Structure formats: structure tokens, C-alpha cells
Amino acid sequence: MAHDAQAAALGPLQQVAGDFSADKQAFTVPWGKAMMWIFLLSDTFIFSCFLTSYMNVRMSTMDTWPNPSQVFALHLFGQDIPLILIAIMTFVLITSSGTMALAVNYGYRRDKRRTMWLLVATAVLGATFVSMQAFEWTKLIMEGVRPWGNPWGAPQFGSSFFMITGFHGCHVTAGVIYLLITAKRVASGFYDKKGTYETVEVAGLYWHFVDLVWVFIFAFFYLW
Amino acid sequence: MSEAKEGQQHPLTVYLWIWLLLFVLSTFSYLVDYFHLQGYLRWSLIITFMLLKAGFIVAIFMHMAWERLALKLAILVPPLCLLILISFMAVEGGYTFLTRGTAFLR
Description:
Number of strands of chain B: 0
Strand order of the largest sheet of chain A: 1-2
Order of helices and strands of chain B: HHHH
Strand content of chain B: under 5%
Number of helices of chain A: 9
Order of helices and strands of chain A: HHHHEEHHHHH
Radius of gyration of chain B: 20 Å
Shape of chain A: globular
Largest sheet of chain B: none
Helix content of chain A: over 70%
Structural class of chain A: mainly alpha
Oligomer: heterodimer
């Protein structure tokens, strides 16, 4: 486009100034994509508030913080493997992010069958993740972890754990439903009628964000 | 940036390489815990792997690297405010800890 060539000649900041100040649409992306990004920005703030409050209670407690490496260990093959369930959950979520990225790519290639099945695979992996999280919650609740206390130390451990992983689990569950609806629409030819597969990319943005949040939870809650 | 093609279309190999890289980085961060690394070494490794993973997800999987600068700035700059919140809450947490410590000593 001539407009782009002109903007490139002006340099990146003039391009930004042009995008925002000219009497036209500011973001040259479909509105659904811009809105999804803005929603994800607000979600970033929500999750950051949770993680910051977790940092605050962990710094200010006088009790020792329970060691996540041991709390989340599983007894497998005759030995305790530290944090193994969380590691498997992390790999499941990363795998689902990969299948999602491929689904978006095949969507733009108008390969309906592959797009649909990759979306279904992503949803199945997401459901696997939530099931493993349900197993983890059950195990911890049986061991006596409550939002107000636990057998190993600082009582704030339980409230932080349930709030952060619970909110993330809700996002994954919502994402699974979202992906299944998108897969159904791919199969029914909805996006062919609409003339664009950009909606699949927007669903992908949400799914990658869920994976992104897990990267931070994994680092700060489970590994720290 | 070619406008002829619809949306974000990139070669499959880009995604496959990033996918593999995310697996490797996750394995590394798990190994940090597995080998019981402690102290500043542990924290710096955790943060490094975390930021690398987050960066690749946002830049490649979420296509931020190929978006126009206006969208990049609109989405990536506001979260920097969080650094202020985090530093204030860290100071506050340390203060609460010290106050509780003196209360228990007395």
C-alpha cells in the first residue's frame, strides 16, 4: 500500500502518530481482534493483582511458606517426584498452544478439516488440563489445605492457591467452550460464509493468553 | 507487510520451532526445581525462562511481532504500570513483616 510505504519512510513513531491522529480507524486490524487484545489487557491487570497480593502475603507472613516442590510432589514408581503433576500440566498446556497456533494457520489456508480437528485437539488438551487441576485440588483438600490454613505453615498459602489457580482454571474452562463453538462454526462453514477466518485467530489469542498466564503462575507460585 | 494476504499468515516452520523452544524452556525451568537450585541463581533462572517463554508466546503465537507499532504500544505499554504496583506492594510487605516482627519481640 502506498500509505504504508509513505509511513515506513517517515519512521515508526511518525507512523504511530499518523495512526492515532489521522481521521480514520486507529488500529488496522479487525475490530474483534482489537477488542480481544483490550480484553486481554484488562485480564492481565486482574491476574497481576492476584499475583501481587500473593507476593505481598508471602513477604509479610511470619510463618514459613509451605515448600511447593514437596506439596505438589506425586508418589510414582516407588518414589516421590517433586512437582511432577504441575510439570505435566505445563506440558499439556504448551502442547495445546502449539495445536492452537497450527489451527489458526490452517484456517487462513482454508483447510477446514485440519482447522476443525486442531481446534478440537486444543479443547481436549484444555479439558485434560482442567481435569488434572481438579485432581490436584481434590488431593490438596484431602490433605487438609483450606483457604484459612494448611498443615505445613503459612495459612495464606491456601487462599492464594485456590484464588489464583481457581481463576486460571475458570479461564481454561471458558476457553474450552469457546474453542468448541469455534470448531463447530469451522465445520459448519460459518467462516466461509463470513468470508474470513480471522475469528479463529481471535480465539487463538484468548487461548495463548491462558497459556501465558500459566507461565507466570508456574514461575511465581510453583517454582519460587 | 503485505496487505494482499488475509490476516497473519506465516510459514508453519516458524510455529514448530517456537513450539519446540517452549518445550525446551519449560523443561529447563522444571529442572531448576528438580536439581534444588537455591537463592539468586534459582530466582534469576526462573525469571529468565519465564520472560523468554512469555516473550515467544506473545511475539510469535499471538503475532504481536507482526502487528503495527500503534497496536503494540497500546497493548504492551500499559502493563508497565504494574511495576509501580509491584514495587509499592513489595515495600508494604516488607514493612508489615518488620512490624509483625517487632510486635512479637515485645
